[in-house]
User: Fold this.
Amino acid sequence: MPKTHLLESQINRLILFLTIPITLIIAFILIKIHPIYAIAAAIGGGVLIFTFINTDFAIYILIFSMLLSPEFGSRTTTGEGITIRIDDLILSVIIFTWLAKTAIYKELGIFRKTPLNKPIAYYLTACFISTALGALAGRVKPATGMFFILKYIEYFMVYFMVANQVNSRKQIERFITSLLITFLLVIIIAMMQIPTGQRLTAPFEGEEGEPNTLGGYIVLIMSLNMSLVLNPEVFPRPKLRRAVSAVTLLSIIPLALTNSRGSWVATIPVIISYIIISKRRYIILAFIVSFILAAPYILPKSVIERVKYTFQEQRGYARTLQEELPGGVVLDPSASERLRSWKLAFRDIKKHPVFGYGIAGWRFLDAQFIRVMIETGFVGLATFTYLLYMILKQTKKIERESKIPFLKAISQGFYIGTIAMIFHSIGANTFIIVRIMEPYWLLCGIVQSIPIIEKEEEKQLRKIEKEFKSVKLGV
Assistant:
């Protein structure tokens, strides 16, 4: 028997020998634990195996689980408590398996070199240092601080995994299609909540959902959709463009019914941006004018009351909770509480201006930039601002240099979506919200891989042209 056959035979016998006891052990464990844990373990094992075999498959799972996975645990309005989502567990398995795969197959590399690698490293370093200092001073609970840092790392790992994995336009087309299907499912599930009369939230958010999260997610994907729709050369078939247009228009309903003022504000830069840059700006203008004229008649009463309530002067004790702006403008108690917390942050940052109080080392604050400032100091704020600047700068460069209409539209949509998220973050911790940041960093990874893909396609095109010329010349 040849040595290779002998070796294969020995390996097969070894695998069989090991499989039998391992199977018996797993079976013994399964009959001793709760069925839910057994199912979770089976799903985790399946995800692990498929991720190792095909990373694209793992990204598809991730895309659908981002918004469609249940959440466990609870957090108070003051930011206390911890929530865990099935998506967190799936993502942990995916990242672990992906890292293991890159360790075994070293030619895959762990981190593709992109212009965002250094800004991400700078920001994470600032987070680590500020939280470590906060923990040493007793301001930060180490477990809580580390939990938040791990979540930040989780978002960036999504970016690196996608940026490493995407190597062709076909991949991007399939990922974007999956993202749009997920968006449609989220919209449908959200609209099913309308009969309850409550503010709409993202699917499976538990008893205390956060409408602002759903609103931010809708604005982000809406920014992408509008870019795809307003560039007609993107879709080879008009039916596809009409379908995406219909879904985008449909998403306006749940966006309005979130009653999230921060999300409504975030739509303003999206509309203004497309009016400025789009050749089809007249369509947007016509829709906006029609919507404004019809708003008093078509908008639900709750939406109109939400707008009025923002600047409505209250009576009695509620009036004492309201802040007054220059010009006699009065804010509602909720907005006033935000304003007071901002004032306190600017007061307290003087005590620890360089690295702040550490992540989760200060009171809960619902404003991204001010939260970054108070938690990580002016060093953290500078690195965070630099990261956003580099995202915008690099995305704009990719959009300007891209020659393929579909890829150009994606980079344009992501650029405008980033601006929208910055506006959304004025009154929310947008850049640490899982259900917004996971699709955001996935899109960021796709966009940053576009130059590599276009170079490869140009290379292939030149090769085909060269072959065509050789055939034509009879060489």
Remarks:
- Residues 368-401 form the longest helix (34 residues).
